[in-house]
């Protein structure tokens, strides 16, 4: 009787694995195939609008990697990298600043007693340039988001991206006394607009070059979706942070620091409070911190 039960259990587990493989071949969506980890949402930034999509990892790659683990058993859902870490960490990140919203964001972070990472762009205004130093002085991290944020230019060639990045670092060195070694690609490392400027493989080429010269880039695994509209309702932003962070122990949260992102600022205190209640500790991104990437640079 016991042997029969074991056999039925083994058969059931094997069926689960076969079902998943067939599901991948048939093109099941991430919602239907639970073994697909969410790769977050990527944004394509414009001055007044953004677009977000989702990317998922290959199911077959996950099966191969999972089967090689000593804890793997047929029919068991493989833990994501976020789940494997016991300590819950949240890395808040703000793209596209500084802006008129930078000071309100800094005030909220100060009141909540947490630090964040700002992936900034180049600004010509003396007032906005002073915010670079303000961010650093308050204990937050600066990351490079390119000087121009111009897709057509920065993604036209490897040299163009590197030049634009170093132009911003020169500005940050003069105004804030730092040269960031972390950066975020405008649109994320898997954006499609880059192909129009530099071809199908331009992102991989840029990622390889920037990694080789000492930089580390970060995408995100939790999107606030505040880029889905010029001004997204506060409750929608909060709901996105909550739903996209569930089940993950380490999260890099994408938000935006831009003049028109007033509701992002409004949602921020509640988002922080909710994450704290879930047991998250807040840290800043660095080359030694948790990394999440849509595109891994080829060797």
TrEMBL record:
Q: What is the lineage of its organism?
A: Bacteria, Bacillati, Bacillota, Bacilli, Bacillales
Organism name? Paenibacillus tianmuensis
**Name of protein:** Peptidoglycan/xylan/chitin deacetylase, PgdA/CDA1 family
Q: Which UniProt keywords apply?
A: Signal
Q: Which domain of life is it from?
A: Bacteria
Gene Ontology MF annotations: hydrolase activity, acting on carbon-nitrogen (but not peptide) bonds
Gene3D superfamilies documented for this protein: Glycoside hydrolase/deacetylase (3.20.20.370)
Family annotation (CDD domains): CE4_SmPgdA_like
Q: Which InterPro entries match?
A: Glyco_hydro/deAcase_b/a-brl, NODB_dom, Polysacc_deacetylase_ArnD
């Amino acid at each position: 009787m016991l042997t029969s039960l074991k056999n039925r259990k083994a058969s059931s587990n094997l069926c689960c694995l076969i079902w998943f493989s067939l599901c991948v071949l048939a093109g099941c969506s991430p919602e239907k195939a639970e073994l697909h980890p969410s790769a977050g949402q990527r944004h394509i930034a414009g001055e007044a609008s953004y677009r977000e999509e989702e990317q998922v990892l290959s199911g077959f790659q996950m099966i191969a990697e999972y089967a090689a683990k000593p804890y793997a058993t047929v029919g068991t859902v493989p833990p994501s990298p976020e789940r494997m870490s016991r300590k819950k960490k949240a890395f808040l990140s703000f793209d596209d600043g500084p802006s008129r919203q930078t000071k309100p964001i800094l005030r909220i972070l100060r009141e909540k007693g947490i630090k964040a990472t700002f992936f900034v762009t180049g600004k010509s205004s003396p007032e906005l340039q002073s915010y670079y130093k303000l961010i650093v002085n308050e204990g937050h991290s600066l990351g490079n988001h390119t000087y121009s944020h111009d897709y057509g230019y920065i993604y036209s060639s490897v040299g163009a991206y590197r030049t634009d990045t170093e132009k911003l670092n020169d500005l940050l060195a003069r105004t804030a006394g730092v040269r960031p070694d972390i950066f975020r690609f405008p649109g994320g490392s898997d954006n499609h607009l880059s192909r129009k400027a530099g071809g199908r493989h331009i992102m991989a080429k840029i990622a390889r070059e920037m990694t080789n010269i000492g930089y580390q880039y970060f995408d995100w695994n939790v999107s606030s979706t505040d880029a889905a509209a010029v001004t997204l309702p506060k409750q929608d932003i909060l709901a996105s942070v909550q739903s996209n962070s569930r089940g993950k122990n380490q999260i890099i949260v994408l938000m935006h620091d831009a003049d028109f992102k007033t509701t992002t600022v409004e949602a921020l205190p509640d988002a922080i409070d909710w994450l704290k209640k879930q047991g998250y500790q807040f840290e800043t991104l660095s080359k030694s911190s948790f990394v999440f990437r849509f595109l891994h640079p080829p060797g």
